[in-house]
Amino acid sequence: MDYVDNQNILKGVFNFHEEVIRIPESRTRIMNCKFRSVVRPADQEMSVTGEGLMLRYYEGNSDFTYPVFMPGTRDRSEGAIILLHGLNERSWGKYLYWAQNLAENTGKAVILFPIAWHVNRSPEYWADPRSMITVAQGRSDMNNGNSFASPFNAALSTRLDMHPEWFCTSGLQTCYDIISLTGSIKSGNHPLFTANSPVDFFAYSVGAFLLEIILIANPDSLYSQSKSFLFLGGSSFEQMKGISKYIMDSEAFNKLEEAFIHQNPQEVKSKIHIPQLTHFNILWNSFIAMLRMDRFQSIRERSFYRLSRQISAIGLARDTVIPGKSILRTLWGTGNRNRIPVQILDFPYPYQHENPFPMNQPLIRMAVDHSFNHVFTQASRFLT
């Protein structure tokens, strides 16, 4: 079976309701695990919850389910790979065979962990294009020529247009949750992992940006030995162009650029309602270091030099959202001193950042399968 076959099989069986999901013709199984965010409503000082697209608190963002792909028959894995997704992702659909492939080729359990306010941590109707048509039309009719407004990005675009600081609060909450998950795994308290299991990462798109913040901060030295494979991500924020009908519209992206690139970061920090929990300052400084190449340059470049044997990255030449050359420029730093392995590929078919391995296109099916195997063979070798 090829990439398309495997994806279709997984989409047919995947759900959040069964505790254990058996994958046909595979020894890998999917285990659905419960998680409670360490950032609680009281922590966020949110006396007003908001409603609709302006929700400030949603129970599903605090208490949710995440899937773990368990290879073989063991009850506990001796290694974890946390897979981080892209911005505005509302389902795990395109990542299912990514996770199965990594699990089967590394022998490690692969955790699909959702960013705050994404996937199943957001209300279901945000992901329903029919429910978002009116919102998208209103954003298209803005007087300032808003482009790429669509039902697919209407929820995220509306939220970030009104509150660009929520981009940061979502990321910070996710950082705290990943740190908590890592602690649970390493301490032996996670039911699917042996104590002291190594925790590695496969991070795609903005998930790579989020991961870099965690790696630079390295709270409690949790990630000193972690290996990280970055796919279509890893550049500084200023080199990204996240305007797409599947990510966000131009008005929302312009608000993000204004808040994080052009304004003083302290103005944004004053609007963040997550309290100064443990590690807040080092995570905040790491975030600032990843926004622009001229901010906290020494912190960023010293960190990537330290991590030069623990990171590998692949970008795409025709990626317009996070260009491959921007990933290389960020990871290598001034004078190309870091020498983190970065490949810039160019798949032999039309692709987009949001859809590097297109489905339902028979004429390029073999090429897609070959490109997928090329990327994930390298990822598995690096993460083994």
Keywords:
384 residues; alpha/beta; 9-stranded mixed beta sheet; 13 helices
Notes on the protein architecture:
This protein has 384 residues and is of the alpha/beta class. It has one domain: 3-Layer(aba) Sandwich (Rossmann fold). It is 38% helix and 12% strand. The protein is built from 13 helices and 9 strands. A 9-stranded mixed beta sheet has the order 1-2-3-5-4-6-7-8-9, sandwiched between helices. It starts with a helix and ends with a helix. About 1% of the residues have low confidence.
Brief write-up:
The chain is an alpha/beta fold and 384 residues long. 38% of the residues lie in helices and 12% in strands. The chain contains 13 helices and nine strands.
CATH class: Alpha Beta
Q: Report, as a whole number of angstroms, the end-to-end distance.
A: 23 Å
**The biggest beta sheet, please?**
9 strands, mixed
Low-confidence stretches: 45-49
**Rounded average pLDDT:** 94
* Helix/strand/pairing category: alpha/beta
Helical fraction: 25-40%
The CATH superfamily turns out to be Alpha/Beta hydrolase fold, catalytic domain
Shape: globular
Number of helices: 13
Order of helices and strands: HEEHEEHEHHHEHEHHHHEHEH
CATH architecture: 3-Layer(aba) Sandwich
Topology:
Layout: H1 3-13, E1 20-22, E2 29-36, H2 59-62, E3 63-70, E4 80-84, H3 96-106, E5 109-112, H4 129-140, H5 154-162, H6 166-187, E6 199-204, H7 206-217, E7 228-231, H8 250-262, H9 265-269, H10 280-289, H11 297-306, E8 311-316, H12 324-332, E9 342-345, H13 365-383
Parallel strand pairs: 4-5, 4-6, 6-7, 7-8, 8-9
Antiparallel strand pairs: 1-2, 2-3, 3-5
